[in-house]
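Key idea: predict the complex, not the pieces.
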Amino acid sequence: MKVLLTGAAGQLGQALQALVPSGVEVVATSRAQLDLADADACRAAVQHHRPDWVLNAGAYTAVDKAESEPQLAWAVNAGAPQAFAEALALAGGRLLQLSTDFVFNGRQGHPYAPDQDRDPLGVYGSTKAQGEAAALQLDGAKVLRTSWVYGPVGRNFCRTMLRLHASKAAAGEPLKVVADQVGCPTSTLTLAAACWRAIGCGVSADGPALLHWSDAGAASWYDFAVAIGEQAVAQGLLSRAAQVLPITTAEYPTAATRPSYSLLECSASRQALNLQPSHWRAALADVLAQAQ
Ligand SMILES: NC(=O)c1ccc[n+]([C@@H]2O[C@H](COP(=O)([O-])OP(=O)(O)OC[C@H]3O[C@@H](n4cnc5c(N)ncnc54)[C@H](OP(=O)(O)O)[C@@H]3O)[C@@H](O)[C@H]2O)c1
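Result:
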């Protein structure tokens, strides 16, 4: 099976390449090889490589910056999946589009099922929602939504917190983290395994077109920051953790409005993928072990 991977230099892209199943040939592209903002280039890549699947892990992921760059965010997050879907319809081949809990408004107070209506709050979520719709125009396409992604490499909350725990603890200052947004942290290591399953490695690829995958449990950003500090000390990554203080979203204003409760209901997808989740704390321990 031949897979055209985008976003190869991103945190998920790197985890996917580290876990390639046997029998899969990956054509890995990052920004230098394929600019996702260039729809013609996306179509040409499909025509040239003729993949069985496009695994579209590349995205414009700067949630706040997207508010001031909506056209670029749209081109990457919606234009590229649209171009892939169009080209794959002609060339043959399928599309796995990665997406996000930020396609939901977070107001319902219980986990979102895959078939619920999208209602994003900001530009990033809106462009990802449009990317989902464009991808699903292709017969056999799949959308896999996930949440709060972090891993041992790349730009993510966990690595930022490791740096801040060290600097705040050294300065004797508290680390203030938002406690009124709830979701589920998801490790790139478990997410990559779910992506390979979604395209038929180890399980049939005939299954639901809309999939939800996150690690198990729930957390606020505050809970996640506390756990990162505790586990990093336990694993010897930090000599001590900073004191973490809970704050409200109102006390930490950002350009983009984020959903306050965006847990994804994953049980049907876990069954379809035949994959049991790890609790997010166990997944965090595995990520920190690789960060050493
Ligand atoms: N991160 C999260 O918390 C989160 C949560 C839910 C869903 N997701 C989704 O999960 C998927 C993987 O995200 P991630 O966490 O791995 O993000 P990431 O680490 O930011 O990786 C995204 C990659 O896309 C690349 N990219 C951006 N614009 C591009 C362009 N014009 N042409 C080519 N490549 C471009 C980036 O390249 P550069 O490094 O050169 O910028 C980066 O390597 C995305 O679909 C994202 O929307 C992420």
